[in-house]
Amino acid sequence: MKLVWLICAVAAATSVCLAFNIDTTATRIFTTEQKDFFQNKVLQLLSDKNNGILVTAPEQLGHEETCTSDLNLTHNCIIVPEIWPEHMQVPIRQFGLSISEDAMRSQITVCSPRAVHPHSGNSSLNKVCYKMKLDRGPSTQERTNKSVEVVFLFDGSASMTEAEFNKNKVFIVEIMGSLRDTPVMFAAVQFSSTVHKVFDFNDYAAGRALDKLMKDKHLKTLTNTHRALEFVLDEIFDNPAAGASPDVTKVLILITDGDPSDTDRNGIIRRYDDKNIIRLVIGVGAATLHKFRAIASEPKHRNAFKIENYDGLTGVQKKIFTVEGCTAPLAEFSGFSAVFKKDSLIVGSVESNSWRSFLHRPQERMQGYLGNSISIGKKNGVPLYFVGLPEFEQTGQIVFRHHCIHWTEVQKIRGEQIGSYFGAELCSLDVDSDGSTDFLLVGAPQFHLPQVKKEGRVYIYSVSDETVLESNQDVTGPSMGRFGTTISSLPDLNGDGLRDVAVGAPLEDDKSGAVYIYHGNRQRGIVSTFSQRIMGKNIDHGLKFFGRAIFGDLGEDGLPGVVVESRGAAVVFRSKPVFNVLARLSFHPENLDALSPDKNVALVKITACFEKVEATKSKAGPVSSALNITYTLNVTSQASQSMFSQTLKLRDENTCVSYSINRANYVDDTSTPLRIRLNFLQPDSESASAVLSVDSEREAALEIPI
Question: Signal sequence span per UniProt (predicted)?
Fold first, then answer.
């Protein structure tokens, strides 16, 4: 049995986008033989070396099958050689029905639910998973099986309180604790106007690091960041006396709450680049994003984090060392699922005949639980594991809380309709990206409302501080289509600071499929009305089961991208930048001369100004960020009414237009003011390169006394 990966390189082109802001006009579609890619899974790859998507082919057999189809020069196809378990020759079927990527994007786990073991004239089905390295450039944990040296460089300037300074220490202790008993070595340096070593690799190896860290005093002066970087390189990373080794992966984690007080006069960033030292930078509070991002290693948009205060360090730890993910089962063996959690691989296994199965970690097994779908999370520092049982007494859901080495069952929630397949898909949602799970979304793709011809429902549960799921709302699919077959947490699409959600309905519209985009909401998890509906047939008439799997991530342009899988194809979407626009009205002169004998002179000049601010975090240039609006200016008096309308391209942050109002047309009764009203909208968002935010106040009003 072979695993076939279709690695399709995505050209780094700036795409223009759509009807809210996922672009459906400039997509990339990667296809191959549909029969090989039945129930395939998809991941998006974004790194320094490879940009593209990874697609498994569970039905691929034999070297004679090659990836030809309609692939063109922008795509590459790689067939991975045959893979066998180490100590046995057993046939493996449907390899690639489940894939999961670790948090550092350095390895994936690929699983099959059908490893056939013959014995005594009979055979049994077992499950098998392989962990595989990805050659995609340096990342923090890519070589954790080899030696890794990590230096914490933390800010001790006077701008932070003692409590905030101590949160730095807590963060360092938690990171070291999560990587205890691994080949990772740690050192720490505090910097301000001066720089001093807190502990080095020798101290860590000897068990002295924690004591030295706790006793370290707050320096409380300025922020000489570049001088501190030079100290770390010379005195720690390149210093054998500090326990450093020359042939290991080296990682710097910089934590700062202010911009550097010094400049890079000695070219220290270039020295770090030359030595391939990975640099993760965490900016807190007032730290300016573009200034500390310059210190981070490539890709900078992934290795620089901005948080509002030191409480957010927990969330950053999760971004660096953990993953919060969703899996996408369909039918048959597709419920076999796996996700990464820190250094644990969580595997859900389905016994196809009895529907009795288990959830287990390496070297740990719990009988009696069906791991059809798995999602993970964290609340108050406690890891959470959610496991779906879509066929348990026709419906069901189980939540586990994990304490160290013990599993504790917290809660069971039953579905409301027999046969709805409640729990077939789970997605834990950290809506505000603070490192704490806020909601659990549960798919019931076969929930049926025959009277109104609707199928599929997503249930949203909030996760309380007491680690209890509380019903919040539910969203039903708008048509027949197995809505809720897939649920995926996406990066913030519209720039409101909240993660968004995509829901797949792969059987909608005669099995061509559809994907629904929902914006995040702090109180409800998601806004109940979808912001965008992407129909498979509108992308390509040949697509079938569009929306079977969905994966979202940030692209090189700083904007989210979404990969949607259908049978035998994967479609890559980019998103557009979103802008807030504020309109202001003013007039001149302030004192109007309404009694002038010349009625043809200008009575007043009205100026309408539009202030444009990007809500998203794109790296778009001035051309791609231009925004077209159509505005209407109504001028009303007791004697007359006029309307001015025009389409305007907003290229700069501020764009103004002016109109002169003649005395003859508007001055009849000086006791009645002139009333000015401005309305504007975006005329065609689908073909535009940028999108007007739905939160923009699209009108302004003014009264001018005469």
Answer: 1-19
